[in-house]
Specification:
globular; 5-stranded antiparallel beta sheet; mainly beta; 5 strands
Length: about 80
């Protein structure tokens, strides 16, 4: 299964805040995900992410697979 920036995924165990859905912020050798309940950001290796993810809860708005969102400074 392929995952894209902006996808909302459901993880195996809920976060301590009670939410079990996370937004994907970075895709690559490791994943950066943000809890949709409290906003906590966590980095996981690709292997750990693939082990813990249960599926896509909501598909993102068509982000680039290799780009990281956010301000990169002056262009």
């Amino acid at each position: 299964m392929s995952y894209r920036l902006g996808d909302i995924v459901r993880m195996k165990k809920p976060h301590p805040c009670g939410s079990s859905t996370w937004e994907i912020l970075r895709v690559g050798a490791d994943f950066r995900i943000k809890c949709t309940g409290c906003g906590r950001v966590v980095m996981l290796t690709r292997a750990q992410f693939m082990k813990d993810v249960r599926g896509i809860a909501d598909s993102g708005a068509g982000g680039d697979v290799h780009a990281e969102s956010g301000n990169r400074g002056p262009a």
